[in-house]
Amino acid sequence: MTGKYRITLNMEYCRSADYSFVKGVRKAAELGYRFIEPMVHTGWELLSEVDYFHSFSMEEDPLLMKEICDTSGLKVSSLSGHSPLMKPEASVARLTRAIVLADSVGARFVNTDEMVKPEWMSDEEAHQVMRYTLKKIDMVARRHRVFVCIEPHGIYTKTSDGLMKIVNLVPSPWIRVNWDTGNSYLADAEDPYEGLEKVKDQVYHIHAKDISMEQSDAERGLVTGAPVGCACGDGVVDWERVFSILDGEDREIFLSVECGTIDQAERSLSFLTQTLGDRLIRD
Known about the structure:
Structural class: alpha/beta
Strand order of the largest sheet: 5-2-1-11-10-9-8-7-6
Shape: globular
Number of domains: 1
CATH superfamily: Divalent-metal-dependent TIM barrel enzymes
Low-confidence stretches: none
CATH class: Alpha Beta
Number of strands: 11
CATH architecture: Alpha-Beta Barrel
Largest sheet: 9 strands, parallel
Mean pLDDT: 97
Radius of gyration: 17 Å
Order of helices and strands: EHEEHEHEEHEHEHEHHEHHEH
Helix content: 40-55%
Strand content: 15-25%
């Protein structure tokens, strides 16, 4: 069975350029992207308010995001709604609003991870708290039919077993995996391709993050993730192997390019389009 993929662009690509959300959307369209993955936040973030940062406030009318994207001919594939699952006083409200926003703009995925564990919290307590958070979030996700996808990025999710332990804390068809190709490689806790093989049935979204040899030499085994990588195709990730693992899955999977510069975003789109060939959905 041949895989079915769509390419989208995580808005972190324009952080180094100090772009606003509006300017970042317009540039993504100019580069040839048809979908984006915006970052969202609660409250009124200073740099975003003065147009130096791309994150979109969930205090705004959700349809404002759609209006901005419609103007540039783009659609929202997913939201980067990363919230600390071990801190329910923050994550429940934040993820609830992200799910509602995603539904309002036609996106079906909200991505998150466990984030940082407080020093005073035991492993058992951490998983109990995450179960509570995910139970609350699952009720919202079910109503809105939006997938909450957990990615490898922290101390528990750096292995596929640890990732699935969190995903399975609350049995739900709406809690799934956002596989981050770069984070799984950098963590070096297991072979990243063997890890993907173990979770592939649950992968509904991918952060397409490549890692340069320089970053690999400096950070592999020392971190559990990174905010962005290099251009897809310029680094150490074996993309053909990634796709060969996922090609048997009978669903569309979004590949969200997670790179650090505008130039890398442009080259990533070219590389992935060429590499995917007929596996890329073009309608």
